[in-house]
Specification:
By secondary structure, the protein is mainly β. It has 2 domains: 2-18 and 153-324, Calycin beta-barrel core domain (Lipocalin); 33-135, Nucleic acid-binding proteins (OB fold (Dihydrolipoamide Acetyltransferase, E2P)), CATH 2.40.50. The protein is built from 4 helices and 16 strands. It has helices at 2-14, 72-77, 180-187, 191-194; strands spanning 33-43, 50-56, 62-68, 90-97, 104-112, 117-119, 133-135, 161-164, 215-220, 223-228, 234-238, 253-259, 262-268, 287-294, 300-308, 317-324. The strands form 2 sheets. It has a 9-stranded mixed beta barrel. A 5-stranded mixed β-barrel has the order 1-2-3-5-4. The longest helix has 13 residues, at 2-14.
Length: 344
Amino acid sequence: MMRTRLATLIGTLILAFPALGHHSQAEFDDDVFEMEGEIVAAYWRNPHVNFTLKTVDDDGNEQLWEMESSSWNTLARRGMPMNVFTAGDHVRVAVSRSTKRPQHLSVDNVLLDNGMEVVLSGGGGQPRWSENYYGGMGMGATAAAVPVTEPATATGGLFQIWSIAGGRRVPLDRELPLTDSAREAFAAWNPQTEDPLLQCIPPGMPPTMGNPYPMQFTAQDDVIILRLEEFDNVRTIHLAPDNAEHVPSPLGYSVGRWDGGTLVVETTSINYPYFNRVGVAQSAQVETTERFTVTDDGRRLDYELTITDPATLTEPVTWGTYYVSGRGDVVRPYECNVERYVER
């Protein structure tokens, strides 16, 4: 079946693309090289941490380089102190160059003069120079670690905090059964000027469900509130829907029902312009069906999303992942900000 094949392909390729924030890192090439210079601006924020590096060549010519990495929330979860390096610090960096923006780099590793290394890679990279480091897959030899909470024995069914475990990103940014008009629109998309996430405009349905951060379900009368950390999005799932005509919105109008132990959510009236996070447009005809299923032990939440949009897709596509509970995680404020707060 085409749907099964697509779901398998999506699940496989999702694992191949680490989440370095909110949008694709495809603009950066694979060649990593080192530079040395002075940090002249440091911005610890969501959706990306950003830094400006000043270098001086052998002839005394100065250059400024804009560097970006993963989100602050991602780094904070790995025990990263805010302002671990600031303007005025001399550093060595491991970076890769943008293929689209001059003087723009993706930074993975930073070495400070005191020998401490900062691993900024959102995919949980490894230290490059030092045994003492912050971030990455581990906390290093002397860096302060964040306490790890043992999995809880008691669970609250669906109504608790869930942490992503089975992948990221929804839907896939390639191998989609797109209509001709959708392919033409995608080919003309310019992420630097048109990506709403770079303007701190929260994602709507369905791409908001492709984030790598925790989410929390709570019950309130005849609705279920789904709070998503990324962009501080909040979805309302109606268990007692009315028959009124609903004004379209980025998150749409969601109706939920119980099918045994599975919460089935159908969403219509979506007016968010993009089907995914890399510029595939969607139409006002888009509809989604989600299935949230908690395992008997209450520790795993299986998630399945089916998207139908005849103006964008020649057939529906289905994507799935899973979440886990009991990690002691919290839903942190996201507070997206794309304005610099320091002078260069």
